[in-house]
Amino acid sequence: KLGREDDACELARLAIAPEQETRKKTTLVTCHSALGEVAATRGQMDEADSHYVKALEEAKLSRLPMLECGAAGGWKRHVLEPAGRDCSDAEAILDEACTEMKKTREQLAQVLV
Predict the structure, then answer these.
(1) 34-39 — which CB contacts under 8 Å span 24+ positions?
(2) Which of 9, 40, 52, 90 would suit a FRET pair with 83, their CA atoms being 20 to 30 Å apart?
């Protein structure tokens, strides 16, 4: 957000490196999502897609539906829609997470932007 994409990527890569043994799912999801967003803005859509898929895997393991919402929303917004790809998988993840939280998408609209 501050225009320091290279610094953000370096920090995110360090945090997700296996030797760091990062266990906090919030950190892993955030870092993979950031790497996915930056890769997408640079036109590296395969790399972006793989980071968002990893973010979604970690979010699912966290059992925190809000993390799933963030990762699915980012994947949809930064990878799927710009590439004209089918968004149904991301939509299904968002719907399932909202159901788990007993919230509607309208109630979470500010978060899902």
Answers:
(1) 34/8, 34/9, 35/9, 36/74, 36/75, 36/78, 36/79, 37/74, 37/78, 38/5, 38/8, 38/9
(2) 9
- What pTM was computed for the model? 0.90
- Of 70, 75, 64, which is closest to residue 101 (Cα–Cα)? 64
N-to-C CA span, the chain: 15
Q: Are 79 and 49 in contact (CB under 8 A)?
A: yes
Find the Cα–Cα–Cα–Cα dihedral 74, 77, 79, 81, rounded to 10°.
150
Helix (H) or strand (E) holding 112: none
Q: Amino acid identity of 30?
A: T
Reported confidence tier of residue 70, pLDDT bands at 50, 70, 90: very high
Query: Rounded to an integer, what distance in angstroms lies between the CA atom of residue 100 and that of residue 63?
Result: 10
